[in-house]
Amino acid sequence: MAAEPEIHAILDELRRLRSRVPQLTGALAAGVDGLVVAQDTPGVDPEGLAALTAAALGVAVRVADATGQGDFRELLVRGEHGYVATYAAGRTAVLTLLAQDRVNVGRLHLEGRRAAARIGELVDAAEAAAKAAEASQPARPPGRTTTSRTLRPTRTPRAAATDARTATDS
Prior knowledge:
Elements: H1 4-20, E1 24-31, E2 36-40, H2 46-66, E3 74-79, E4 82-89, E5 93-100, H3 105-136
Antiparallel strand pairs: 1-2, 1-5, 3-4, 4-5
């Protein structure tokens, strides 16, 4: 399961982001596999949003690759009532923001990119620490498996996001 200090740090970042951009109605950090890492999405099913984000990410990654635009960085959807913005957050996570239609989109991007970079650092560091801890474990007898403490639960990734790559460089 997720390590508490990392989850609290990510939740703090989501709350700070929502205070900096008052028109945000929700914020979600998820793995590229569609599993929720942390969320602040009142009135929205976070598991459903994470799964939809993974599906959209899979399409966005393919579009970027097919057009020669490089690794995925962000995706913006504008609906009749507002925006859904998804940003790469490290190697294996994304940040999805929900915003009212009256949001300043430039501000949304500025703050979303900054928060995604910070969340990506937290997620990547937690995964590196989990891998290092797993590597330092003594060898297990055959037939026994180990589970690492990663920021998101271990589960078979969704097909649409298995090869999803993200980049957080601006």
